[in-house]
């Protein structure tokens, strides 16, 4: 407290005698004839401050006139200092207040909490919140969103972070803010980041009023957790309830489908979005560019590149990074290199994009060469190797079946002092799966929490189930699914059933469907997989029954589509459609020729064709 008085005295001597551009005067006549008018005058001056020096002068004048004891003015001083990034000065003002002011003034607490959260002093914000509750102040609709935001960024991971969120949620209920709009939106965002979409959905359903932001938070949350089906469900429900999805909603929906590998559906959604007259932003363009290689739609990618230039998105770094990856995946590393060179202010992400482009083109040695450049003086102007750099090179080796090299890079990453993140483990577990490195993958998955403090997410479980299932450890893979702390999504269950299909184990597949009937029985993809599993085992009658069951439930898988370009004209083929074009006879003759060639290639073609006919 003595330090606070000394600071205040220094402030008085230093600023009270200086003329201010705000024309502050210590004359009682200027500040009004009573305390209320004086406070109003000081408040007006604080709101008009454009420099921190002006704020300090007003603070000095308030000290001279004895106005700093006002909780209202103290709140304004805290907010103004925070606006100029002077958190220590803001804290000094707060600490100078009496205990009675602190216990009875929620505005003062909200001001100091907002100052700390805005200044990214998250741990200090939580400590202040703990002090606030000791004074018996439960907070209000402005306090708790700040606290939830601090929890989101405080740095603790896994169960500790989840537990912290639960505690604050209990405080929300205790304060009677269970259905409060802003509090609920923050809780949805926090639960989504923790992968607890069931809890996020409960908060959402209890809300009495939902804004477009509330719906966007849910779509974004499902996108983050790779649940495209649920994201689309929320999107459609939003439309039926009379709310118009905005650009943010559409971008989140595109992202959810792209993250789940649903490239064709992503492209269809983008087309629908454009037909509805929705504009585009850099994020949407980056998502669409990322799915073009999966569809072999490099011409579309080039067309979007033209759109990027035309509409001025070429200065967006993340759009450039997506373009570099696009050209790398198309094998055109020369164009990728040219785009990289054209980036004015290259950062680590720029280098990561170039590494990824070479890795995607199958040029792993060249990718590693670029990666090694990060140790050279030329790279010192950027931030140096970061986790993303290591993730890119690990992913590159893994996707080309070089699992041992991916593991070696992971070990080098650890020894270099870099801590892996969730994306690192997706890359390395996927690498182990593709290379059949079961023991190494199993150990890495077990070490995620125990050694690195990273709570496995949906993608980690999907990779691990795929790893175990591919190698025939179906029972162990099933146990991993059963022990998941969240409900498995389509990716996880699909990996398990795909493993049953791979090993033609119909009995185990039936047991999986039976045990998890509530999750898979009403899903089109699970019915399709079961049809294929039966067909692969020669149980055509059971396969037909499964198909009939799916039809009776009204389940329908999205029809497969393909395109072929002939003389600059695209022809689209949709499974189940009839060709009515005038040149359909010619198309069938070409397809017949291709069929004959494929029959000559493999004696197993007939079985393969029967399986494909079921997809």
Automatic annotation (TrEMBL):
Pfam families attached to this UniProt entry: E_motif (PF20431), PPR (PF01535), PPR_2 (PF13041)
Taxonomic superkingdom: Eukaryota
Transmembrane domains' residue ranges: none
Keyword annotations from UniProtKB, A to Z: Repeat
GO biological process, one term: RNA modification
Cross-referenced Gene3D superfamilies: Tetratricopeptide repeat domain
PPR repeats: 211-245, 246-280, 347-381, 386-420, 421-456
Example GO molecular function: RNA binding
PROSITE patterns documented for this protein: PPR
InterPro entries, per the entry: E_motif, PPR_At4g14850-like_plant, PPR_rpt, TPR-like_helical_dom_sf
PANTHER family: PENTATRICOPEPTIDE REPEAT-CONTAINING PROTEIN
Protein name: Pentatricopeptide repeat-containing protein
């Amino acid at each position: 407290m003595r330090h606070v008085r000394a600071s205040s005295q220094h402030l008085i001597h230093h600023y009270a005698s200086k003329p201010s551009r705000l024309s502050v005067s210590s004359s009682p006549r200027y500040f009004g004839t009573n305390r209320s008018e004086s406070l109003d005058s000081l408040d007006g001056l604080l709101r008009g401050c454009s420099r921190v020096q002006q704020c300090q002068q007003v603070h000095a004048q308030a000290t001279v006139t004895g106005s700093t004891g006002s909780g209202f003015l103290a709140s304004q001083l805290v907010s103004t200092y925070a606006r100029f990034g002077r958190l220590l000065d803001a804290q000094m003002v707060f600490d100078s207040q009496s205990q009675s002011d602190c216990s009875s003034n929620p505005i003062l607490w909200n001001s100091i909490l907002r100052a700390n959260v805005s200044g990214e002093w998250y741990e200090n914000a939580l400590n202040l919140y703990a002090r606030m509750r000791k004074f018996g102040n439960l907070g209000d609709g402005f306090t708790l969103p700040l606290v939830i935001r601090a929890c989101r960024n405080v740095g603790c991971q896994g169960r500790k972070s989840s537990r912290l969120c639960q505690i604050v949620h209990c405080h929300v209920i205790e304060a009677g803010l269970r259905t409060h709009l802003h509090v609920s939106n923050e809780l949805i965002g926090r639960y989504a980041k923790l992968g607890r979409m069931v809890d996020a959905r409960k908060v959402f359903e209890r809300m009495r009023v939902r804004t477009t932001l509330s719906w966007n938070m849910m779509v974004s949350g499902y996108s983050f957790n790779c649940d495209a089906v649920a994201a689309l469900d929320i999107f459609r429900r939003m439309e039926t309830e009379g709310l118009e999805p905005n650009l943010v909603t559409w971008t989140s929906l595109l992202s959810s489908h792209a993250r789940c590998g649903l490239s064709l559906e992503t492209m269809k959604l983008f087309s629908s979005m454009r037909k509805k007259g929705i504009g585009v932003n850099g994020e949407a363009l980056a998502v669409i560019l990322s799915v073009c290689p999966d569809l072999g739609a490099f011409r579309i990618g080039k067309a979007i590149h033209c759109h990027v230039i035309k509409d001025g998105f070429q200065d967006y770094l993340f759009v450039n990074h997506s373009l570099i990856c696009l050209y790398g995946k198309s094998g055109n590393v020369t164009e990728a290199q040219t785009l990289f060179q054209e980036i004015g202010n290259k950062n680590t992400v720029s280098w990561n994009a170039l590494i990824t482009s070479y890795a995607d083109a199958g040029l792993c040695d060249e990718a590693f060469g670029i990666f090694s450049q990060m140790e050279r003086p030329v790279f010192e102007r950027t931030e140096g190797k970061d986790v993303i750099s290591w993730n890119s090179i690990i992913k590159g080796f893994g996707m080309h079946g070089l699992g041992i090299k991916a593991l070696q890079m992971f070990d080098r990453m650890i020894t270099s002092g870099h801590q892996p993140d969730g994306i690192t483990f997706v890359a390395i577990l996927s690498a182990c799966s593709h290379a059949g490195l079961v023991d190494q993958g199993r150990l890495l998955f077990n070490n995620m929490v125990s050694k690195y403090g990273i709570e496995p997410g949906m993608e980690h479980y999907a990779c691990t189930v795929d790893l175990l299932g591919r190698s025939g450890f179906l029972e162990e893979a099933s146990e991993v699914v059963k022990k998941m702390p969240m409900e498995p999504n389509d990716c996880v269950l699909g990996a398990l059933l795909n493993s049953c299909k791979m090993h033609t184990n119909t009995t185990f597949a039936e047991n999986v469907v039976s045990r998890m009937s509530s999750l898979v029985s009403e899903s089109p993809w699970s019915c399709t997989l079961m049809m294929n599993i039966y067909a692969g085992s020669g149980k055509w009658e059971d396969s037909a029954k499964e198909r009939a069951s799916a039809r009776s439930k009204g389940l329908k898988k999205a029809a497969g589509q393909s395109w072929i370009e002939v003389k600059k004209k695209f022809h689209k083929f949709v499974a189940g459609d009839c060709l009515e074009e005038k040149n359909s006879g010619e198309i069938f003759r070409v397809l017949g020729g291709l069929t004959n060639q494929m029959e000559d290639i493999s004696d197993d073609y007939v079985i393969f064709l029967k399986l494909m006919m079921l997809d």
